[in-house]
Amino acid sequence: MSFTGKSRKSWIEETLFKRECVRFIPSSWDQHRCVPVCQICQNLIRCYCGRLVGEHSWQEPVPPLSFYAASGQEMEEDWSIEVHTRASPTNAYGTIDFEDTATRVCRAKYVRVAVDSKPEALLQLMLREWQMERPKLLLTVQGGTENFVLPPKVMQAFSKGLITAALSTGGWILTDGINTGVSKYVGEAVKVFGGHDLRKRNTVGITPWGVIDNNMDLIGRDVFKPYQPLGNPLSKRVCLNGFHSHFLLVDDGTLGKYGCQQGLRRKLEKHIQQQKIHPRLNQRVPMVCVVVEGGPSIAFTVLDYVSSAPPVPVFVFEGSGRAADLLSFLHKQTANDRYFNKHSPDLVWQLLLKKHFYVQQITIFDSESDDQMAPDAAILSTTLKGTKASPAEQLNMALAWDQADIAQKDILVYGQHWPVGSLEKAMLDALVLDRVSFVKMLIDNGMTMSHFLTVERLEDLYNTTQRFLQHLVEDAKQTSLPAGYRLSLIDVGLVIEYLIGGAYRSSYTRKHFRAAYSRMQDNVSMDIYSLMFSIHPVKKKKKDLQFFRTAQPYKHTRLSSSLGDASLQVLFNFNDLFVWAVLQQRQQMALFLWQHGEEALARAIVGCKLYRSMAFEARLSSMYDNIAEKFKADSLEFGKLAVDVLDCAFRQNGQMAMKLLTSEMEAWSHFTCLQLAVSSCHRPFVSHSCTQTLLTDLWTGPLNMRKNSFMKIILSLLLPPAILLLEFKSEAEMCHVPQTHEAMLFGLDSVKSTPAPQATADLVKSVSNVTVQWLPWITRIYDFYTAPVVKFWFHTMSYLCFLMLFSFVVLVKMENRPSIQEWLVIFYIVSTAVEKTREVLMSEPRKLRQKLKIWFSEYWNISDFVAILLFLVGFALRWHSDPYRTAGRIAYCLDIIFWFIRVLDLLAVNQHAGPYLTIITKMVNMFFIVVMMAIVLLSFGVSRKAILSPDEEPSWSLARDIVFQPYWMIFGEVYAGEIDPCAGGNSCPPASFLTSFLQAVYMFVQYIIMVNVLIAFFNNIYFDMASTSNKLWKYNRYRYIMTYQERPWLPPPLILLSHMALALRCIYWKLLGNTEPGERELHLGHEDRKKLHEFEKKCVEVYFHEKNRDVQSNQIKKIRAIAERAEEMSVMVGEISEKVNCIQHSLSELDCQMGQLQDLSALAVDTLTLLTASDSLQKEEARLAQCRINPTLQHVLPHSWTLPHRSNTDCDVPTTERNNLMRLAQTIPFTPVSIFGEEVSIYTLEEAPCDADADSPSASFWSSKGLSAILQPLSSEEGSLDGGLRQGCRMLCTWAEQDVLKPGLIYVAKAFKSEVVHVWQKHFPGSTALQLCLREIQQQRAAQKMMQVFNQIKPHDMHPTPRFLDVSLVLWHSNGQWLTIERNMTGDFRKYNNNTGEEITPCSSLEDMLLAFSHWTYEHSCKELLVLDIQGVGEELTDPTVIMADDQSGGKGDLLFGPDNLGVAAINGFLQKHTCNLCCHRLGLKEKSPITSDEESTHQPPAN
């Protein structure tokens, strides 16, 4: 099924269906029987589908009147899905919005599908509609559906292993999707270890539609539904887990019945197993079953998996409980060849033993074992071993998962037999799939790139999906590619040349490669044609042959023999793969390939250039503007890599590093690394010390000058014999500098290492006849005049002479015939023109158009071209009579400007003047500011001219008048005499007064604003370029040096002699039939080049070693810093512990002293007692007096405080023992309060279950016996506690029986005011205060219980957990008054709403939650109760008001709660004034309308 022409919505509704029961089949007739149908039957008897009569969707317009057969007939019809349910288009699909209990919002796609849906349609829905990634592994999780507790280690191993295995391989996880059992643990694992990306969080829940709580809320077509997973503990339904990404809600027409999803889930699993793991790989999607806990049915499920074809491996977490532990035990017993007796009572054991338990397909993971591997690796290893696939297929699976470590450990083992071509195919797949670790692994295992890489494979790599490369081919070929066009290597070569630019020529576009490629294509076509004729002797079109050739790149059976001869001429290496990785935008692969093979420095520069050019092309194309920044970052990475390697090489060996820069590379168009860096505009590379040192050596040539070099050179030019006095470099010092062919004739040592060609040998023989003593002098003279610095000064001196002559010519009168000075100028300029022509023709590009394009890309070449052309025009005009001669002279005058400006290029060579010229060049690029100033100038000039000259005739002078005066006004010339055109009696044009105003505005805008903007622009450029101008000058220095290195040593006009010599030389080489050697070349022999490559490879290794060492040193520094901090903390902890020990020692000494004082005081008391007793009777009375309570206390002790009568022996306790007991009592902490106050009785509201079952609901009852306590009133210095109905007082508890109150704590006692008691006395005569207190306590207890339920069901991320204080009933014995008592709260007391519904504006999460709690109580109690008047300190609350409608609360005599219940008025007030906040929305609360007036009660109780 295709989505073409269909909307997403219509496709889902046409393909996916739901199931509804349309026939009522009673599940039981024992509850009620009647004829005809009565209301009881409709609300009592359920169908087999689980629904009542009214919940069915009937096919008939009227439901049947009887649900059972006639008398004497039996019901023989059984309910079935096929007969009694009807399929209709699904009406529930879209997105579920879960409110995550962490910090993020989780959303999931869902759809309601029929139980008999086709798995093909479901998979198409998941891949195309839900945009899920194609699965590479299927992890189906089986286990318990009820809640269970996993041990921490098992839970950690299961969570991390499952999610890591799924994320690392791109696998899918299938569960039941509910918020209980193992599915809940899967959700927790996704929460902890999963990502936020929905496409990568492929956790699919397959859940029965009928068991989902609040499933009717999900009905809607393509909707966005909020869902709160708040399950009802009394409900049999379940909630969806919020951390799943997708849900298939399986509908079989039943309600509340579990298990219908298993069949569809198994069919979907089998269908997914038949899919390819990747379009390039033939391997199917592997599957593994993960078992955690579970019941008896799990054993049958495991048996079904392991006995299926192909078998599904099972991974069991031992220690998770029940079925998992049973399977682990049986697996171990079976593995140890132990069998159970035949009379084993367990059917599951018998089934497993019957199948020999399939030991190979089941893996037991023990998280407690120390020998176990990581859980994710264990799951993947189990999948590889359990599928029973061949090694090649296992390698494909590991390749699709990108798990090279598993492949290295379990697949690429020693002694493994591999079919021919399997590893080459694996390498090709690894390159296409961008599996860097696999490419590294295969190379480490012996894969050679020269054997693997062929033309066909390289073209196959380039033809992988990459639209940007095709656009580059179109730009390079300047044509549009047809659909399905297959790129060739020649096309790739054109792209490389297009991106690198300049004179670069790719090896794919050279003649020898084109010839070999053409022969190869012809041989392929011939062999395929003959092969197809031998198999199918039918005519085939040329188009079919091309398709056959490109569609099967791996089958070389007959083609390999014919391809061998052609492809042997083309050897590929890591350079070709590196360029492929760069053009395919695979940065990590390119970085890996860069490390292998030779010429790593050149590859880094090429990568930098290619990425930079691709970034430029991407910016030009609006389609790829988003990847331009990525290309730029990758270019900078390779650029930094090149600089780092060069720096490392320069530190290792300076001369070898400079040889790396100057040696020509055949693979890179015979370019040097220095040429590549310059063409790539890699300024940091060219500015490096190694490069600058090389450029200095190239600039000075063989001359060895340190100081006053220009003076020595000028003197030697003026006095040639002084050349012999100069100092020259040795041959060893010049070994890294490229030499010309003429240097070979003078026997330089750098050439002797390389055998010269035959023509060169003949020349050497002819030169050998020169006298030996003249050779050093000739060598010195040659070295001097060919040095670039000497050429520069020679040409500069000649150029200055030319300027003087040219100035003389233009300053004096021009005669009819040219003077000698003019002829010299003419010869100079003509010879310069010839030299420029030679530069163009001898440049490296092949085509003249490309030569001219590169030559004109330089600014000074354009200036020279204009100067020469203008001079030739003036020279042609000067031969004619006036006025042409005058025009020629004017052309001369204008032309000399260009030649004087050319002097700036000569100054650019200087180290000090060069950077300033760079800054000036940057400042000249101010096009947009000039345009803005021109706009302002023209706007004023045109209007001014039009006002002042209304009668002007058309002429070209108008343009001059418009610009002339406004332009000079910029520089301060305001033309004051012309500001007022009417001055001096001149006629005034109309509205001439406006010109002065316009001039003022113009001067302000142009002179004040625009000129200052221009100055600020220059200032900004200066400061920006001041830091980089030196680097830019170093970069431009290469151009200056190369210009004079390639230029003939004779200056114009003598340069014509050099041109004649060059022509003779070219004719000589043509006559010999040999190719003319290049200008300059670093001649390296095979051994020298091999050493250079080894040195480069060593530098790369040293670079990575230093990089790893820096990383390790940074880690070591961090560890040292942490260790130092830990040591400092340990010292601080030690000091604190010493202080604590000192304090403890002091306290122990103080305790000993206190014990001694107590002993002395007890001894003194005993002594005094004995002295006061005169006889034994008096002594006995004294002892008894010590045992009684002191009667001088100011209050009567409560009855529970009376002490039992002790015998005489009890008082004869030894003093020492009594003192020991006293010291022991000192160790028990207590609050030292005085026992003062008044006695009260405390009655508490206790809880107890209604039935014997502990899980049954609890009931509240009052304690039958009050407990005594002593309370001492405190002064109300902290503020009044009085309210509208009650007055309060703080009390200090000094003693309490059975800890009913805590001694030493402060409590608040509240009593109803007398006027309130008087008002309610008619409703509660006799015990009004007691009844009001009881209802007040009951009211707070009700609010407390609702708050407990609220805290349990609210989302966990709503962290404040408010609670109401416990309240007890108090009887004050002194006056018989009833009060309520609760713990005193300290802090900022706040009131959040009142009993009329008014509420504060929330400003914190606590306030939002408390206001939402009031709204929740109204919804939770089915609109019967409403908790208002919420107040307290922080999370501790007190004195709520429970509002109850009058029809619910009854009369005042039946008052359920406190007297501040305002009934319907308070409810309506709340509904009108309450504004739902974020907490209300997260709790699923909706706005409510007030109760109508008909529902209001007529009685209004007194307000609080």
TrEMBL record:
Coiled-coil segments on the chain, per record? none
Location of the protein in the cell: Cell membrane; Nucleus
Instruction: List the GO terms this entry assigns under cellular component, sorted alphabetically.
Output: apical plasma membrane; nucleus
SMART domains to which the protein is assigned, alphabetical: Alpha_kinase
Predominantly, its location class is membrane
Domain Alpha-type protein kinase span(s) in chain numbering: 1254-1488
User: Which UniProt keyword terms apply here?
Assistant: Calcium, Calcium channel, Calcium transport, Cell membrane, Ion channel, Ion transport, Kinase, Membrane, Metal-binding, Nucleus, Phosphoprotein, Serine/threonine-protein kinase, Transferase, Transmembrane, Transmembrane helix, Transport, Zinc
Q: What is its EC number?
A: 2.7.11.1
Please report the record's description of how this protein sits within the membrane. Multi-pass membrane protein
Q: Which reaction does it catalyse?
A: L-seryl-[protein] + ATP = O-phospho-L-seryl-[protein] + ADP + H(+); Mg(2+)(in) = Mg(2+)(out); Zn(2+)(in) = Zn(2+)(out); L-threonyl-[protein] + ATP = O-phospho-L-threonyl-[protein] + ADP + H(+)
User: Which top-level group of life is the source organism from?
Assistant: Eukaryota
Q: What does the entry give for GO biological process?
A: protein tetramerization
Which Gene3D superfamilies does the UniProt entry name for this protein?
MHCK/EF2 kinase, Phosphorylase Kinase, domain 1, TRPM, tetramerisation domain
**Which InterPro entries does this chain map to?**
a-kinase_dom, Ion_trans_dom, Kinase-like_dom_sf, TRPM, TRPM-like, TRPM_SLOG, TRPM_tetra, TRPM_tetra_sf
Q: What residues form the membrane-spanning segments? A: 792-812, 859-877, 889-909, 916-940, 1000-1023, 1049-1071
Query: Looking at its record, which EC class is this enzyme?
Result: transferase
Q: Which GO terms describe its molecular function?
A: ATP binding; calcium channel activity; metal ion binding; protein serine/threonine kinase activity
Entry's family note: In the C-terminal section; belongs to the protein kinase superfamily. Alpha-type protein kinase family. ALPK subfamily.
Name of the protein this chain belongs to: non-specific serine/threonine protein kinase
Organism name: Oryzias sinensis
